[in-house]
Design goal:
Layout: H1 2-16, H2 24-31, H3 35-48, H4 53-83, E1 133-136, E2 142-156, E3 167-180, E4 185-194, H5 206-212, E5 219-226, E6 229-237, E7 265-275, E8 278-285, E9 295-303, E10 308-317, H6 331-334, E11 336-347, E12 350-361, E13 373-385, E14 390-402, E15 422-434, E16 437-450, E17 465-476
Antiparallel strand pairs: 1-2, 2-3, 2-17, 3-4, 4-5, 5-6, 6-7, 7-8, 8-9, 9-10, 10-11, 11-12, 12-13, 13-14, 14-15, 15-16, 16-17
Helix pairs in contact: 1-4, 2-4, 3-4
């Protein structure tokens, strides 16, 4: 910038001294200004041959000063263009079938003043990952470190397990995320403690959740990148559904009814490719953390524009396996096929995601599934950000199963409320976010639209509804 001003001031000094002429580039710009500008130049030239030297000099100086001003404006514009950094290419979203939550926001028009939040772990709203802490790791280059620490409190009116308290307090997240995000070789590690609270199911302590679900390293994979194509290998977030596994990733603290039919983390390999508006992912994995690699998952997402995305997702188990003693591998869901249609609108203060889910379970006596069943469900996830860090999220859901016989308590029961059962839920989540701190609460109700006595809520299994209040507070660091 100083160089540009110096050149212009030097040229102006030469003009005032009566030497030289405007730069050829400025002259050409004046000539391109139109016929009127050309006429003025010709008139001035003609007049200068018949008027006094003083008048000619004054008109000539005004013309040259105007040319220099135009030159200065152009130089400033060129310098600003050279200094403006190019917008970073969006990373291929990892995780759930709806890519919009996983895709980082568009680069601002002006250069950022510091590091920007990372796209992993995938988070919808209203929380976001903190600005990463960057450290040097020798041959690995620079590593980015972020994390979250939060606690949870819960109270409910109708428990599911007899002789258990109706209120619970525990750590909901104490996790650290370490990742390398540059170069052809990248990786992501997510480790620590977590709790996965789900509507209509019993609360499990955090220690038991970690021990019985995914262990202390729930997500971890290496990533090989070439242009818009990449390969991920390890423990991967699922492609299925519109909700993520951990509470800090979602609009609501609790996972919903539809999420109860979906896998959360799978071990395997995943291929990702982005071509213009189309993002494709294909995964060969072990489904519901079964350690048997017989499941194939895939997603196709079309971004109509920056605000609207439509996704089609499917997953199916080509084998059959009954894993005994693992809470992460439910028998019916691990041997099911699942399909999602997910639409996401994200613009301004709004994020809205309606989605449809269908699952089917085939009869397979080898794994003790004596009859088939299927489920149909739909949900609407919506969040609005008000001013001063306040937001409000809502989630209505409905799911219905078919198959089995209500007269036979041993019939297939994918929802857990009896053969052929159905349920409606509504969750509202106000939240306050200030820098890295967040405070939010869930108020939820689950109403069983059809169920079997003994599979319902309450100590005797006869209550058809459950109301919960949940509060979560913590920091993203």
């Amino acid at each position: 910038m100083n160089k540009a001003y110096g050149v212009c001031l030097g040229l102006l000094a030469l003009v005032l001294a009566g030497f030289g002429a405007p730069a050829s580039r400025a002259g050409s710009r004046l000539a391109a200004g139109g016929a009127a500008a050309g006429s003025e130049t010709e008139t001035t030239s003609t007049t200068s041959s018949t008027t006094t030297p003083t008048a000619s000099s004054a008109a000539d100086l005004r013309q040259r000063i105007d040319a220099l001003k135009a030159e200065l404006v152009d130089l400033n514009q060129e310098l600003a263009t050279e200094q403006e950094p190019a917008a970073p290419a969006a990373d291929v979203p990892q995780g759930q079938g709806s890519p919009a939550p996983a895709t980082p926001p568009a680069a601002p028009a002006t250069a950022p003043t510091g590091p920007t939040p990372l796209p992993s772990p995938s988070i919808t709203a209203p929380l976001s990952t903190a600005v990463p802490h960057e450290i040097s790791a020798g041959p690995f280059g620079k590593l980015e470190i972020t994390g979250t620490l939060s606690g949870i409190g819960l109270v409910e009116n109708n428990g599911v397990i007899p002789n258990t308290p109706i209120s619970h307090w525990d750590v909901s997240n104490a996790q650290v995320f370490v990742q390398k995000t540059t170069g052809w070789f990248q990786f992501y590690l997510q480790g620590g403690a977590y709790n996965i609270v789900t509507l209509g199911t019993p609360f499990a302590p955090t220690g038991a959740t970690v021990a019985n679900i995914y262990g202390p390293l729930p997500v971890g994979y290496v990533k090989l990148v070439k242009g818009n194509f990449n390969v991920e290998v390890g423990e991967l977030p699922t492609l299925i559904g519109a909700e993520y596994t951990f509470s800090f990733e979602n609009m609501n603290i609790e996972r919903g009814l539809l999420w109860g039919q979906e896998e959360g983390v799978s071990r395997g390999i995943q291929l990702n490719e982005t071509y213009k508006k189309l993002t494709l992912a294909l995964s060969y994995n072990d489904g519901f953390f079964s350690n048997r690699y017989t499941t194939l998952s895939g997603s196709a997402a079309w971004a109509f524009n920056a605000a609207n995305t439509l996704s089609f997702v499917a997953s199916g188990n080509a084998g059959a396996y009954a894993r005994v003693g693992s809470a992460a591998t439910p028998l019916l869901q691990n041997n099911s096929n699942i399909y999602n249609v997910i639409y996401t609108f994200s613009k301004g203060n709004w994020m809205i995601t309606p989605y449809y889910q269908y699952t089917s379970i085939a009869k397979d006596t080898k794994v003790f599934i004596t009859e088939g069943a299927h489920t149909n469900g739909g949900a609407l996830l919506a969040n609005y950000n008000f001013k001063h860090g306040i937001s409000l999220a809502v989630r209505p859901e409905y799911i219905k199963s078919a198959g089995g016989s209500a007269a036979d308590v041993n019939s297939i029961n994918p929802l857990g409320y009896g053969p052929g059962s159905g349920a409606f839920s509504f969750t509202v989540t106000p939240a306050y976010v200030k820098d890295g701190f967040f405070l939010r609460g869930d108020i939820s109700v689950v109403d069983l639209t059809s169920s079997t006595s003994g599979f319902r809520f309450g100590l005797t299994g006869t209550s058809t509804n459950q109301v919960r209040g949940v509060i979560e507070a913590g920091v993203m660091f």
